[in-house]
Amino acid sequence: MPPIRRRKLPSPAYAEVHAILERPWLVDVALLEGIADDVHERTDLLDPFAGGSGQIMAAHLGYLVIPRPDVGCGVSGLLPRVLLVRSSADDLRWNLRVLHELAHSLLDEGCPQHSHADAWALTLALAIPRRRFRLHHEARHVPRWAVSLRRLTARAVARAA
Length: 161
Known about the structure:
Distance between the termini: 48 Å
Order of helices and strands: HHHEEHHH
Number of strands: 2
Shape: globular
Helix content: 40-55%
Structural class: mainly alpha
C-alpha cells in the first residue's frame, strides 16, 4: 500500500493573515487594486518579483526604510516618508514586511478610514501586481503563503468587478 500523503499544514503566518483578510474591508477592493496599479506604474520595476522589490519600490516613492527589531506593525505613520520595519534574517519575510509597512503608509495618506485587512490586501497587491498575476508562480520575493493569499484576494477582485 502506498504511503498516505499528508497535507502540509499552513504556516502560522498564513493562518494569521488569512484570519485578518476574513475581517471587514473598509476600502473598496477596486480602489486597493488601483493604488497598487498606480504604485507599480510610478515605480516601473523591471521585475516586480525580484528580491528586495519592496525596498526598491519604497525608495522610488521617496520612503526611507529603517529596520528596527523593536517595532510592531503599522507604526510607520509616526514619521513622514519613513518606514520603520521589524527586521528579519529571512529575505522573503523582510521584503513582505517592507511591502506591508508601505501599504499602511499609502493607506494612511489616501484612505484614513481603513482596516488591517485593507492593509494586507494592498500588501499582497503590491507584492503581486494584477497585470502580472498570471505569472504569480514566478514570485520568488515573498513567502509562498503570501502567493496563496494573493490568489484569494484576486478572486475577491474578480467577484467585485
